[in-house]
Design brief:
globular; 7-stranded parallel sheet; 12 strands; 8 helices; 252 residues; alpha/beta; Rossmann fold; 3-stranded mixed sheet; 37% helix
């Protein structure tokens, strides 16, 4: 099986390539540095010659509303056109749990547009929505910091390790297309305020979390217990948050 991975050098893509290569599959990491640019369409046709599966784990370099919408609209339209021409057997894209519930945020509007473009294509597809990654917890802390305090909602999340998301994508790549959305989440539900305090404590960061249920998530919108948690029967990752935290310290 030949799989072309867009975003192959990133957090998820690099792990995904390692898994698929370890299983004996042929992978291509597509990036602008290799003359393959999904946003402009450059090199897409050649990159997909002989490919069976396309996996899109790209992310926008800018989260500004207009820029992120333009990124996902252009890249997805170009990828769909090239994948259709190449008769791709399975088109897979990574999205975010809660996308349809968080349309007040520009990033989530762009992700929903991406999902709808894929659904409207005639390609056999699977969209994997993932919950928030453990790896982004320090970024959430930074976005919510004011001096020595971090103001965050107590809303429940069910975050997941990037390694488990990559494993789910690798499994989906060798399965039949679902022509639907599936979800992946971590094994535990934890309040956002507690998640961030734990990562700060683990890294001996002196900032303190103040619980404020009106505090906006990433400065965008207020969330509740249902906003970022999965529906029924998600795929469940194996890595627990406490274990990931300890590993992150040992690798630092």
């Amino acid at each position: 099986m030949k799989t072309v991975i867009f975003g192959g050098s990133g957090l998820i893509g690099s792990k995904l390539i390692k898994i698929l290569n370890g299983q004996g599959h042929e992978t291509v990491s597509a990036s602008p540095s290799q003359g393959i640019n999904a946003v402009t369409g450059e090199g897409l046709d050649n990159a997909l010659i002989g490919a069976d599966v396309v996996i899109d784990v790209m992310n926008s370099p800018s989260f500004e509303d207009i820029a992120v919408l333009s990124f996902f609209e252009s890249s997805t339209n170009n990828l769909i056109a090239a994948a259709t021409k190449a008769n791709i057997k399975h088109y897979i894209a990574l999205s975010v749990v809660g996308t349809e519930r968080l349309q007040a945020g520009g990033y989530f509007k762009a992700k929903l547009l991406q999902e709808n473009l894929i659904k409207a294509s005639k390609l056999p597809y699977t969209i994997l929505r993932a919950t928030q990654f453990y790896e982004f917890m320090m970024g959430i802390a930074q976005a919510s910091t004011d001096g020595e305090t971090v103001r965050l909602s107590s809303a429940t999340l069910q975050p997941v390790a990037a390694a488990d998301v990559s494993k789910a994508l690798a499994d989906i790549a060798i399965e039949n297309p679902k022509n639907d959305i599936v979800e992946v989440a971590g094994p535990e539900k934890i309040g956002l305020d507690k998640l961030i305090q734990k990562v700060l404590d683990t890294h001996s960061d002196k900032r303190k979390v103040i619980t404020d249920d009106n505090a906006p998530y990433f400065g965008m919108l207020v969330i509740d217990d249902a906003s970022l948690t999965p529906g029924l029967n998600p795929r469940i990752g194996q890595i627990r948050y406490a274990d990931w935290l300890q590993q992150s310290v040992s690798l630092a």
